[in-house]
Design brief:
Blueprint lengths: L10 E4 L3 E5 L3 E5 L4 E4 L2 H8 L2 E5 H4 L3 H9 L3 E4 L19 E5 L23 H13 L4 E5 L9 H8 L5 E6 L6 H6 L4 E5 L4 H8 L4 H13 L3 E7 L8 H10 L4 E5 L17 H8 L20 E4 L4 E3 L10 E2 L4 H6 L18 H4 L15 H7 L7
Parallel strand pairs: 7-8, 7-13, 8-9, 9-10, 10-11, 11-12
Antiparallel strand pairs: 1-5, 1-6, 2-3, 3-4, 13-14, 14-15
The structure holds iron/sulfur cluster (2 copies).
The site of one iron/sulfur cluster (SF4) has 9 residues, from loops.
Amino acid sequence: MPGAEPNRGLFVRLAEGISLRRLEEPCLYHRRADELYELNQDGLEALARCRGHLTLDEVGLDPEFEAFCLAEGLLSLSPEPRPMPLVLGPAPRPSLRYLELQITWRCNLACGHCYLGPAQGVDLPLAQVVTVLREFEAMGGLRVLISGGEPLMHPQWEAINAYLATNSLRRVLLTNGLLLDEAKAGSLAVDEVQVSLDGMAEGHQALRGPGSFEPAVAAARAARRAGLDLSVATMVHAANLDQFDQMQELVRELQAQEWGIDAPCPAGRLGDDAGLTVSPARAAEAMAHAYGGAYHGGGGGMACGLHLATVAADGRVAKCGFYLDRPLGTLDQGLWTCWARQRPTPLSDIVGCAECPAAAECGGGCRFRAPAPGLPDPVMCSLMGVTPVID
Ligand code: SF4
Ligand code: SF4
């Protein structure tokens, strides 16, 4: 037909790594960029028709919206139908966006601060990994943090890795790096590797043992060479306090897109080891070097962990790894059932937090690290430069 646009007869689907979510608002999720685009209901319904079985003409997107999606690479076109499944279940309120999945409690290190305590031969079976990730994805999940123990020590790691490639979640592997050589990095079906670096060589090894620093740095480099995003996680402790300027250079040189720095909590092997813990003020000084996003946050007047849950290798589900002794339930009851039992903490239940000028940024800090459930987190108060109001 004269004047007809050549693209109109092409079949359209969401591009690789793009998926739809019903969170508190309808959204489109860009897995590689880890970005959410809010949609209105019409936009959601229109994009839900882009499943590779209809042409652009048949889908009938608003022309301006269609041009935007094509220009941003959110849609892909093909001359033949390429049907794709649509995973778009209802989402709970609050939405569960981040899931820490401790697939194993095996570990090849015995770090002085590990909140799990001694390593154990407990693994989440492959079938349960698949079931929980399917449920998490259908609930609107965004990011799975595959942790341990050392996750690469799971006896079925290869099968887990193969499954990871098939879902729309952003996959982040949390590792100590000892098993992550070039070949392993090249085989990973994850978007991001998070390597633990707890100081320069001396500080790192004071916590993690001799010979653990160089492999961790090499693993970070291998992940970058394999084209994966890199983040670095650091624990502040007494033996790395003077190393944060050097670490800053290293982390920049490694091109980490995120540097998470945290202060230790008295749990697991750390107990109340005063030899490792540091004052809130010193911890805050070090934590000021951190950058990048986080997944522990609150929002809407609620404290931390508003969209986060942890699944342990023994199947318990909890608010986060520190709350495994107060589980929400077990995986055999279903993730949604467990999540529905979570009771977010209003900031108004924490002395001084609701009125705090830093509340929007801080969100009441870490509820586990706070000296009591109704008190502010002294580390975050130091970091925010706030004197907590405690009667
Ligand atoms: S208690 Fe601490 S570790 Fe747990 S979700 Fe809150 S900030 Fe994160
Ligand atoms: S800075 Fe302290 S008082 Fe303010 S919100 Fe954070 S924990 Fe609460």
